[in-house]
Amino acid sequence: MPYEWINHDDTADAPTAELHLWPYRSLPRRGFVTFIAATALMILLPLLAVLGSPVLWGLLPFFILALAGIWYALQRNQRDGEILEILRIWPDRMTLAHTSRRGHHAWDANPYWVRLKIDPHNERIPNYITLKGSDREVELGAFLSDDERAILYDELDSAIRDVL
Questions:
Q1: Beta carbons of 116 and 127 less than 8 angstroms apart
Q2: Concatenated DSSP letters for the chain?
Q3: Are 133 and 109 in contact (CB under 8 A)?
Q4: 69-121 pLDDT, tens per residue?
């Protein structure tokens, strides 16, 4: 699962429950290098037939452009996936910090008044999880799969109940 519950020692300022969420990364850096190398070989293989002819110079820019496009798309995907959500729960407050390439967003509320909601029939994201408190509603784990959000909802519901 691309999230984990963090256990803290019983220190005075430590939260009672802490949850870290991040998107699943199916292509690690090593796999990225392997994929780009294999793609470059497959793209350059047809160029062997025209090696030494002027046609090579006509086709080469298009092959380089295709490889550069794949490189850019994978790098952009990697950067956009650098998301971290940290939910901390204390008996008197609850905070959610969402950090991504686009910036940092924070939310806090009293856990007693927070309403945890799941919408299994949301048209955009099935099993859509939201937290509502302090006159603001925030989403949680929108990048998780449908099944992971359903499991997370149950775990989060019991974690909030345990704190209260």
A1: no
A2: --EEEEP--S-SSS-SEEEEE----SS-HHHHHHHHHHHHHHHHGGGGGGTTSTHHHHHHHHHHHHHHHHHHHHHHHHHHT--EEEEEE-SS-EEEEEEETTEEEEEEE-TTT-EEEEETT-SSSTTEEEEEETTEEEEE-TTS-HHHHHHHHHHHHHHHHHH-
A3: yes
A4: 999 999 988 888 889 999 999 999 999 999 988 899 999 999 999 999 999 88
